[in-house]
């Protein structure tokens, strides 16, 4: 895939970047180099390679998935301008 100056201008406009007309050929060439690098990466065989979370081997911290009510309903409702029966009270908007 090759990027021309028209496409580079369109990308700059979409990115809300002001690029002068005389700088468009250089921008298009830079886009082409980036796309070339991406094509080069796609040639690498990664079959059988485990995904990594970091460059150093480490296990992710895990916790048991337990459903709780949080245990601090009173603290949360203390910030509400109007709370009734353990819930936030809001004005009626639909009749």
TrEMBL record:
EC number(s) reported in the record: 6.3.5.-
Gene Ontology MF terms in the entry: asparaginyl-tRNA synthase (glutamine-hydrolyzing) activity; ATP binding; glutaminyl-tRNA synthase (glutamine-hydrolyzing) activity; transferase activity
KW tRNA processing (keyword) present: no
Catalytic reaction equation(s): L-glutamyl-tRNA(Gln) + L-glutamine + ATP + H2O = L-glutaminyl-tRNA(Gln) + L-glutamate + ADP + phosphate + H(+); L-aspartyl-tRNA(Asn) + L-glutamine + ATP + H2O = L-asparaginyl-tRNA(Asn) + L-glutamate + ADP + phosphate + 2 H(+)
Cited Pfam families: GatC (PF02686)
InterPro entries hit by this protein: Asp/Glu-ADT_sf_sub_c (IPR036113), GatC (IPR003837)
Keyword tags: ATP-binding, Ligase, Nucleotide-binding, Protein biosynthesis, Transferase
Swiss-Prot/TrEMBL GO biological process terms: glutaminyl-tRNAGln biosynthesis via transamidation; regulation of translational fidelity; translation
Role according to the record: Allows the formation of correctly charged Asn-tRNA(Asn) or Gln-tRNA(Gln) through the transamidation of misacylated Asp-tRNA(Asn) or Glu-tRNA(Gln) in organisms which lack either or both of asparaginyl-tRNA or glutaminyl-tRNA synthetases. The reaction takes place in the presence of glutamine and ATP through an activated phospho-Asp-tRNA(Asn) or phospho-Glu-tRNA(Gln).
Subunit structure: Heterotrimer of A, B and C subunits.
Family the UniProt entry places it in: Belongs to the GatC family.
Protein name per its UniProtKB record: Aspartyl/glutamyl-tRNA(Asn/Gln) amidotransferase subunit C
């Amino acid at each position: 895939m090759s990027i021309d100056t028209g496409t580079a201008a369109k990308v700059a406009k979409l990115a809300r970047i002001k690029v002068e007309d005389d700088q468009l050929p250089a921008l298009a060439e830079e886009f082409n180099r980036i796309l070339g690098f991406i094509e080069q990466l796609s040639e690498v065989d990664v079959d059988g390679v485990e995904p990594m979370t970091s460059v150093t081997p480490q296990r992710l911290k895990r916790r048991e998935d337990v459903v709780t009510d949080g245990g601090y309903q009173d603290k949360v409702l203390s910030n509400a301008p109007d709370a009734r029966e353990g819930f936030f009270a809001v004005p009626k908007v639909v009749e």
